[in-house]
Write a structure and sequence with these properties.
The protein is α+β, with helices and mostly antiparallel strands. Helices cover 38% and strands 19% of the residues. The strands form two sheets. A three-stranded antiparallel sheet has the order 1-5-2. α5 runs antiparallel to α6 (111-130).
């Protein structure tokens, strides 16, 4: 009698253990991984300092104060292109309206022009979708700059057991769009203006340990 009771208790304990460890408790439908290993968050990519500027929250404006223009920060990192070649294209479109910059890049046959055009179109679409910009053409390029990415060295095999070093260069491109027409261009500085600024800088300096 005692053996039969012990056998029944053991079977009940085994059924409870199997029901607790059933596969559908730990696995989603049609999956082979446990639920604890599945990351459902969308923030898997690291956000840099340039993109974090889009999260700045300004205080409410006072009545009668002019509307603050929208600012859009966008970038693309690790472009397989030289930062020095990209610099010429970045300075070419700085201060232009978004339509004028896209037109200039459209007729450029350089590789970096296609990349910058894609970044500008992405920033333009983000301005309308996330920053409440009414007209996508009412934007100008306030900042356009490049940065150095990862530089990797590789071996290039030559004949007769010789080899050479090969450098694979990458760069970053950063752009800032501001709502509104572009500001008027600054007048060119002459040599007389630069000399006057230099003399003023010499007169305003501070000499230490003098009478």
């Amino acid at each position: 009698m005692a053996a039969r009771w012990a056998l029944g208790a053991g079977a009940a304990w085994a059924r409870g253990l199997l029901s607790w460890a059933r596969p559908e408790r730990w696995l989603p439908c049609g999956s082979l991984l446990p639920l604890s290993c599945i990351h459902t968050s969308t923030f898997l990519q690291k956000i840099g300092k340039w993109e974090k500027k889009n999260r700045i929250v300004y205080p409410p404006q006072l009545p009668g104060e002019p509307r603050r223009p929208a600012e859009i920060y966008h970038c693309r990192r690790e472009i397989k292109y030289s930062k020095d070649k990209m610099w010429y294209l970045a300075k070419l479109i700085k201060g232009m309206s978004i339509d004028q910059a896209l037109a200039q890049l459209e007729f450029s046959d350089k590789k970096g022009a296609k990349v910058i055009k894609e970044v500008l179109l992405e920033a333009q679409e983000m301005a309308v979708r996330k920053h409440n910009v009414e007209f996508k053409s009412n934007l100008h390029i306030a900042e356009s700059q490049t940065g150095r990415g990862r530089y990797v060295k590789r071996l290039r095999c030559h004949g007769k057991g010789m080899f050479g070093m090969m450098k694979i260069s990458r760069c970053h491109y950063f752009v800032k769009l501001v709502e509104g027409p572009p500001p008027p261009p600054e007048p060119p500085r002459t040599g007389f203006d630069q000399a006057k600024e230099y003399v003023q800088q010499l007169r305003s300096r501070t000499l230490v340990h003098t009478l």
